[in-house]
Specification:
five-stranded antiparallel β-sheet, 1 helix, 9% helix, 52% strand, elongated
Length: 136
Amino acid sequence: MRLFPVLPLVLVLAGCASPLPPHDPNMAWVDMTAQPSDIFMSERLDRKRTPDGRYFLVPPGAHELEARYEFEVSGGAFGLFGETHTMRCTLVIRYDDFQAGQRYLFQARSLGFTPQGWLRDEQRNELARAEAEHCR
């Protein structure tokens, strides 16, 4: 029965290895990016769970995107002891004008204990800033 604890890990890794679906020209595609050491995954589109944490597939119009963002911060006495702590937050973007066939980028980064996020268009213009919620 030692195989049982390994099975969820294998299933998660298999999901990460699956190819991305073809781009639907009737939808907007939102890529996700953060620092390599961070975890940044789509969670909800208009309060409904997303089927794949690697991106958002969005119909044209106004939508709310929620993503889980995990990053490490230094702990201890002002970070002097080298201890780290994982912060977990929800980053929320509200944007009114998603366009069919367009690609967008949902970026995340942390500045100390403060998570930050932006929605950008294909030319990297900032369209909206994320609000951080439920940080712990």
